[in-house]
Write a structure and sequence with these properties.
Layout (H helix, E strand, L loop, with lengths): L7 H7 L41 H13 L4 E5 L2 H12 L5 E5 L4 H10 L6 E5 L4 H6 L5 E7 L11 H11 L2 E5 L4 H4 L2 H4 L3 E5 L13 E5 L1 H14 L5 H11 L2 H20 L4 E5 L9 H7 L6 E6 L3 H10 L4 E2 L9 E3 L11 H7 L5 E5 L5 H12 L1
Parallel strand pairs: 2-3, 2-4, 4-5, 5-6, 10-11
Antiparallel strand pairs: 1-7, 6-7, 8-9, 9-12, 11-12
Length: 384
């Protein structure tokens, strides 16, 4: 079932699902088997074996995610960082150079700063709104450009048009972490990107009970990633595949609620005297609003804001909230809230956080699917 056959919500339910149904089961069973009988496979990577990510649970997920991203192929991994590291290490070779967006999820930042160079790769960092500066970073050994469709935690949308044009002109691969947008809000492959990455732990699963990642792209690019993962062994187990497949089926209805809640809460916070600044591309005041409105179906469920007061004041405010849980991560049905300097971006040096504008009083909200009015009321009572 390809992306061109049906609408997005139909693909969520039916893409990749086995036909006929195994033993008549409407829900695909969990195939808790590490080993499968030999059937004359042509090469090692096509052998049926759990570590090779080709159990029925894996292939169903891969086909579904490929259809959702309008990509020829996809691969699931054991975590979002598993997807990012697998894609970058398999497609950027020793001695080659990657240009990365400068403001990133903390785990990606740490991987690129600390481990990418140790593994023989080169990396430089650049703001993705300044295309002239980006083009100056290109070297003869440059292999690709890495960005996030919506950045964590300041919700910036890079100049996607300009980046694609530069990459095509220079023959560079483009990698995009699409976790914050999800394929419901944005599909990078038809737009011209080469490799799409997800922390499937977040919106794709949607229930805060699975750690998983995903890679989508061409048969050639995903094939390289598969061979790399097959050797290192960072696979997703069948039970997690089952849960991720189940979670994906409601992505459309969940994302509509996430989008609505974040938009409503951002509008409420933007008017409050105890809020210095709100970062959410759905607000007309956001510098990337016009770009996001042109490209995206919605702006996602995450927003950040600067609390007017000290970090201690911000923590006191967090303690007065009744609905959100104080925790990192995002994309679940429940609202989560955190100060990024204490969680997702605590790994960044203080000087780097200050340079990027990730301040002590910055609060990140990952809206769940609760009633919008209840969320607004809870934040208003906590703000006083």
């Amino acid at each position: 079932m390809s992306a061109g056959d049906f609408h997005f919500d139909t693909l969520l339910v039916h893409a990749g699902e086995p036909r006929p149904r195994p033993e008549g089961a409407i829900t695909q069973p969990i195939y808790q088997s590490s080993t499968y009988t030999y059937a004359g496979h042509g090469d090692y990577d096509s052998l049926r074996y759990l570590r090779l990510s080709n159990s029925p649970n894996h292939t169903c997920l891969a086909e579904k995610i490929a259809a959702l991203e309008a990509a020829p192929a996809a691969l699931v991994t054991a975590s979002g960082m598993g997807a990012i590291s697998t894609a970058l290490l398999s497609l950027v070779g020793e001695g080659e150079h990657l240009i990365s967006q400068d403001i990133l999820y903390g785990g990606t930042y740490h991987f690129l700063h600390q481990y990418f160079p140790k593994l023989g790769r080169k990396v430089s960092f650049c703001g993705m709104h300044d295309l002239e500066a980006l083009e100056k970073q290109i070297r003869p050994e440059t292999k690709g450009i890495y960005i996030e469709s919506i950045s964590n935690p300041l919700l910036q949308i890079p100049d996607l048009d300009g980046i694609i044009q530069i990459a095509k002109r220079k023959g560079l691969l483009t990698f995009i972490d699409n976790t914050f947008a999800s394929p419901f809000n944005f599909q990078p492959i038809p737009y011209g990107f080469d490799v799409v990455l997800h922390s499937a732990t977040k919106y794709l699963n949607g229930h805060s009970d699975v750690s998983a990642g995903a890679i989508a792209g061409s048969e050639a690019h995903v094939g390289q990633a598969i061979r790399f993962q097959n050797t290192l062994g960072g696979i997703l187990d069948p039970n997690s595949c089952f849960l991720l497949n189940r979670g994906l089926k409601t992505l459309g209805v969940r994302m509509r609620a996430h989008n609505q809640n974040a938009q409503g809460l951002a509008e409420t916070l933007a008017e409050h005297r105890k809020v210095e600044k709100v970062y959410y591309p759905g607000l007309p005041s956001h510098p990337d609003h016009a770009r996001g409105k042109k490209l995206f179906r919605g702006f996602g469920g995450v927003l950040s804001f600067e609390f007017r007061g000290t970090p201690a004041d911000a923590d006191e405010f967090l303690g007065r909230l009744r609905l959100p849980s104080l925790a990192p991560s995002l994309g679940g049905v429940e609202t989560l809230i955190t100060r990024p300097v204490t969680t997702s971006h605590s790994i960044l040096p203080l000087s780097e956080r200050e340079r990027l504008g990730i301040r002590e009083n910055l609060v990140r909200v990952a809206c769940g699917i609760e009633d919008t009015d209840d969320l607004r009321a809870d934040f208003l009572q906590a703000l006083g």
